[in-house]
Design brief:
Strands 3-2-1-4-6-5-7 form a seven-stranded mixed β-sheet, with helices on both faces. The chain is an alpha/beta fold.
């Protein structure tokens, strides 16, 4: 049995403390992020209110994979102070992509935003992502670490930069996104619903999965400064990298069919080069 802890008002009520319909839902997958959640929630809501969004039109949903680290109590405390935030605790499922999809299905907004819990996605950039949907016909918005005037934190390890560069290169035939590895993005609900039957809940790069499987035609990109994790541990491991390569294989098959096997050979070669370079730098 999967137990869900609902903090505050029931989901799907499409109402809130201020009595206004929810327009934007911010979904945050989390696992053992108690040290970051309080700051994240407060900073995000401070940013959107300072940018002129009506109180109550923005909700935040934390999808926690049974951390048992005090996250529920932190969210409940902030909810009692008036923050429009809820937490879902999953006990029988794990994984970032499935957490995002679960959050989408339990949210109320027309526009659904995803960001990490570790504060590497700056809360001050959230309003710009939300505003990007105001452009006519926008289906998808990507927060990108690569763009004019954007600098990645100098403390971000060099091997992480190489892995990120290689992963972007491998994904280039699938998408024109400048940063398909980003976990900071948004999608319009009707676009997600239309493509949901094709979306896989397995994997870590749900932004790219949704872009490909939902057939995105019109999108916007918003640059943001990428910082280092403030508290907790990074979830990037060798296992995650292998899962990413398997995910790429599935997306190539979905997009190109049998022709993808030629590309897969090239992917394997490039992946080996990237892994060797990263391993050499780590050692």
């Amino acid at each position: 049995i999967q137990f869900l802890y609902f903090i505050g008002y029931p989901l799907h009520a499409n109402n809130n403390i201020a009595g206004m319909p929810v327009e934007y839902s911010i979904v945050v997958p989390a696992y053992k992020e108690v040290g970051n959640l309080g700051k994240l929630i407060q900073q995000v809501f401070a940013a959107v209110e300072a940018d002129g969004f009506s109180k109550g039109t923005v909700e935040m949903i934390i999808v926690d994979d049974n951390s048992r680290d005090g996250s529920v109590e932190v969210v409940q405390g902030l909810r009692e102070k008036g923050y429009h935030v809820e937490i879902l605790v999953r006990t029988t499922e794990r994984g970032l992509s499935s957490a995002v999809i679960h959050g989408f299905n339990k949210s109320n907004g027309r526009y659904m935003i995803v960001m990490d819990a570790d504060l590497q996605h700056p809360p001050t950039s959230v309003p710009e992502v939300l505003r990007a949907f105001e452009k006519q016909g926008t289906e998808y918005v990507l927060g990108t670490r690569y763009g004019k005037g954007v600098a990645i934190d100098k403390d971000w390890p060099i091997h992480r930069r190489i892995i990120s560069w290689g992963a972007r290169l491998l994904a280039r035939p699938l998408t024109s996104l400048s940063d398909p590895m980003s976990g900071f993005f948004g999608i319009r609900r009707d676009v997600f619903v239309k493509g949901q039957k094709n979306v896989s809940p397995i994997g870590y790069k749900i932004a790219m999965e949704l872009f490909v499987k939902c057939g995105i035609k019109k999108y916007e990109e918003v640059t943001f400064p990428f910082g280092v994790r403030e508290e907790g541990e990074s979830k990037l491991t060798g296992k995650v990298i292998i899962h990413y390569l398997k995910h790429l294989r599935a997306l190539y098959l979905y997009t190109f069919g049998a022709l993808c096997y030629v590309a897969l050979v090239l992917i394997a070669i490039v992946a080996l080069i990237i892994l060797r370079k990263a391993s050499a730098l780590i050692l």
